[in-house]
Amino acid sequence: MPSRVLILFAHPAYEKSRIHRQLAAAVRSLPGVTFHDLYEAYPDQDVDVPREQALLEAHDVIVFQHPFYWYSVPPLLKQWMDLVLEHGWAYGSAGRALEGKVLQIAMTAGGREMAYGPEGFNRFTFREFLIPIEATARLCRMEFREPWVRAGTHEMTPAASQQAAADYAALIQRLMGAP
Amino acid sequence: MQGFLLSATVYLAAAVISVPLAKRLGLGSVLGYLIAGVLIGPAVLGFVGAEGQDVMHAAEFGVVMMHFVIGLELEPALLWRLRGALMGLGGSQVALTALLVMAAGLALGQSWRPALAIGLILALSSTAIVLQTLQEKGWMKTDAGEKGFAVLLFQDLAVIPILALLPLLALAAPESVGGAAGAVSSAAASAAADAHDPAAWASQLPGWQRTLVTLGAVGLLVAIGSTVVPWVFRQIARARLRETFTAAALLFVIGIAVLMQFVGLSPALGTFLGGVVLANSEFRHELESDLEPFKGLLLGLFFIAVGASIDFGLIGSRLGAVIGLVAGLVFVKFAVLWVLGRVTRMSTDQHLLFALALAQGGEFAFVLLSFATQNAVLPTAIADLLVAAVALSMAITPLLLLVWERVIAPRTGTREATAREHDTPEEEHPVIIVGFGDFGSSVGRLLNAAGVGTTVLDLDSDRVEVLRRLGLRVYYGDAGREEMLRSAGAERARLVILCIGNAEANLALAQRIKHLFPHLTILARASGRLAAYELLELGVPHVYRESLDAAMRLGTDALRLLGRRGHSSWRLAQGFRRRDEETLHRLATVFRDRQAHLSQAREAIRDLEASLRSDQEARAQRDDTAWDAETLRQEFGAAAPPASNERGGA
Fold it and tell me: In terms of CB atoms within 10 Å, which end of chain B has fewer, N or C?
């Protein structure tokens, strides 16, 4: 039985994004995928906790799809984490709702790949910047997968962004195949 | 009186039976009226006879009113944009057609004078049939529709010089132009643009004075139309006298027609101008909807009269000649329009539509032909033949357009791009706002700030006046009337926003719109809980209690002034609001049952208040555990919070 995938999409200016439109278009109508546009659902940041928890419980793979803002996630996704991942439900001695589920990050960054590293302009790797998410997954007993990152979107050609969308769809397909 | 009632019965019955049938068969209302006319005319049932011609003159007033309504829909700016098409296309169409028809006349053995007269007369097309058909099919805003309209407008202008020219083409000197007055135009309010009607007072003046009078009359019309008339309408609207408003609208239109006839100008042109002058006023939609039934009935009557006046006796006796004339007329006009369309680079299907739509003789030809025989320009025999040919060419126009719609357009496939939509004569917006008080205007300003166009209707004429002075596009009108909603663009809008302060009026309107325009999504203001229940019960899902959001904001600020943190107060209000809305929807299903409603409401209020009573109780009800570290402290012990405590910062 294929895994059910929940994509939590967080982009405060979706209509201005070029790359995320293509990424979203490539996956949003795939069978077995629930595409959840957080900024569309909660324009007032008032996250509906019971609804979100029910969604998480109904899926096996959770994907965070978002742009990289200030070396981190967009604020609504952080708000979502603050509110939804409750003690006693997501973590703590009684919190096992997410145990064994997969957490996959699918992220884009404007700067080039080479800017992220010990020698690069930003000094740290993507993996290092994403340590808080990785730790969150660990605390919630989730399986943290290697983040899928497409960098250099500021200067990405249409052909390259199409390729990125195809890669992303393939990643989601793989996640559905074998958890 | 009895005779009048009897013929009214015949005409109305013919229309009531044949028009719906024609529409059902996809033929359009114009063809339905024409067929009705033929049926009741002398050729078939013989219910109406010789008076058909008189009826036609009276019904031509429908054409005059149509020009007024067209003028209303045309803002001066758009008219200015069409000026190239008007002069270029219109001018060349009239000139080329007249010359070609004249050449044909010469070839058939006419001398040049009658040939030129025939050419000029046949160059005109039928505004009534073309515009009615285009409007009915929704083609007015296509490229072909706009250009066709420009050509028709030019033809209206051209009638005046043609009328001036015709007497000069007389074979013999006219016996007495001053004598036979009423013969040209029997009905006082006829569209007959008889500049030379001796009744026209100005025709007795020398040339330069006549020019002055003409300019003076147009100036007067523009001046009165832009100052006095809106003021009068405003007074009447303030007094809420609906019938008087309709009467005033009719008075204005008929007054213009009379004034124009008095100075020897075309009434149709005058009312068109009157319409343009009022196009920017707040009464535009109201006038449109008031005059619409009159215009429609009179136009229908006009089409019936055209159908009834087709002289099948004459056609039968000279079948070859009539068929030849009709075919020749349609072909020549089509050819000229085709060439002009080519020059202006229209797309194939639009090009064809443009050429087909205008390829007929017009109602002005009837007037001009009888005028020409009177002035001894044309012999009666030829004029009668031409009248029959023009009437037939008018009757086949809807058929030609039907062929275009069914056969040609689907094949050529180059339909108009929808991108043209926004620069169209009628401004059409996706949103209609009804009621533009403090509430409605706030909504409207927000939407406008987001670049969303809104059409605003309000029934308070004082307010409308003030808002228009501020530069807002607000129209005076009663949105409860179907015609009003239609002319505000309800058929193509997506949302209608009801912001009327009176709950009952709002509810009644919601009910009506749901019935008339089921495609529209309704967003409604509700004055309070009860109004909201009623709207929800009606099936309007988007209901907004006007006091709720303001109350929540006030409550938030009150909490902050009492020392609560801003964010906590705000989140509390947010949660409170959400649950109150949920309660509203739940109670809406039982509010008619007093007992059930009371008990459920009591329970709901208790729940809601509980969340406010104390932090402790709120937490017990899982009201808002966000950023709450209580359970963490319990699990790990308050003394030594672990490093993994992500919540609430410990």
Answer: N
User: Terminal CA-to-CA distance of chain B, rounded, Å?
Assistant: 96
If you average pLDDT over residues B441-446, what whole number do you get? 90
Q: Tell which A residues from 39 to 68 touch B, by Cβ distance under 8 Å.
A: 44, 46, 49
pTM score: 0.57
Q: Which residues, listed in sequence order, are joined to residue A69 by a DSSP beta bridge?
A: A72
pLDDT of residue B192: 39
The C-alpha atoms of residue B150 and residue B625 are separated, in whole angstroms, by 69
B243 at the A interface (CB within 8 A)? no
Three-state SS letters, B418-467: HHHHHCCCCCCCCEEEECCCHHHHHHHHHHHHCCCCEEEEECCHHHHHHH
The more confidently predicted of residues B277 and B617 is B277
Distances (CA, A) of A6 to A24, A65, B178, B356, B571: 13, 10, 90, 58, 27
Q: Do B647 and A87 touch (CB under 8 A)?
A: yes
The Cβ of residue B565 has, within 10 Å, a number of other Cβ atoms equal to: 10
The pLDDT mean for chain B works out to 78
Cα dist from B37 to B55, B308, B401, B521, whole Å: 11, 4, 20, 42
Kindly report the number of other CB atoms within 10 A of residue B457's CB atom. 27
Interface confidence (ipTM) of the complex? 0.79
**Which amino acid, residue A147?**
P
Query: Considering Cα of A150, then A151, then A154, then A157, what sign does the dihedral take?
Result: negative
Q: Do B644 and A139 touch (CB under 8 A)?
A: yes
Can you spell out the DSSP letters for B325-376?
A: HHHHHHHHHHHHHHHHHHHTT--HHHHHHHHHHT-S--HHHHHHHHHHHHTT
- Of the listed ranges B246-260, B281-295, B333-347, B600-614, the one predicted with least confidence: B600-614
Whether B599 has its CB under 8 Å from any CB of chain A: the answer is: no
Q: What residues in B contact A49, CB-CB < 8 Å?
A: 626
Give the pLDDT confidence of B351-387 residue by residue, as tens digits.
888 888 888 888 888 878 888 888 888 888 888 888 8
Query: Is the CB of A100 inside 8 Å of chain B's CB atoms?
Result: no
* Tokens at A30, concatenated: 């795939």
Judged against a pLDDT cut of 60, whether residue A118 lies above it is answered with yes
Quote the strand ranges of B117-273, DSSP E.
none
What digits encode the pLDDT tens for the residues B43-63? Answer: 777 777 666 567 777 777 888
Segment B463-488 mean pLDDT:
78
Chain B interface disruption, residue of A42, A78, A87, most B CBs within 10 A = A87
pLDDT at A134: 97
Q: How confident is the model at residue B618 (pLDDT cuts 50, 70, 90)?
A: very low
Distance of CA A79 to the CA centre of its chain: 14
Tell me the backbone φ, ψ of residue A89, rounded to 5 degrees: -120, -50
Mean pLDDT of B250-273: 84
Among A52-66, B64-78, B328-342, where is mean pLDDT lowest?
Answer: B64-78
Sign of the CA dihedral B126, B130, B131, B136?
positive
- Sign of the CA dihedral with B267 first, then B269, B270, and B275 last: positive
- B281: Cα separation from own chain's centroid: 15
Tell me whether B621 touches chain A (CB under 8 Å): no
* Per-residue model confidence as pLDDT tens digits over B524-550: 999 888 889 999 988 898 999 988 989
Return the DSSP state at B27.
-
Residue B256: HSE in the Cβ half-sphere, 13 Å Cα cutoff: 32
Separation of alpha carbons A63 and B247, rounded Å: 68
φ/ψ of A36, rounded to 5, equals: -115, 110
Token couple for B233: 């309408």
Which among B253, B252, B256, B246 is positioned nearest to B289, based on CA atoms? B246
Of A49, A83, A87, nearest to B631 by CB-CB distance is: A87
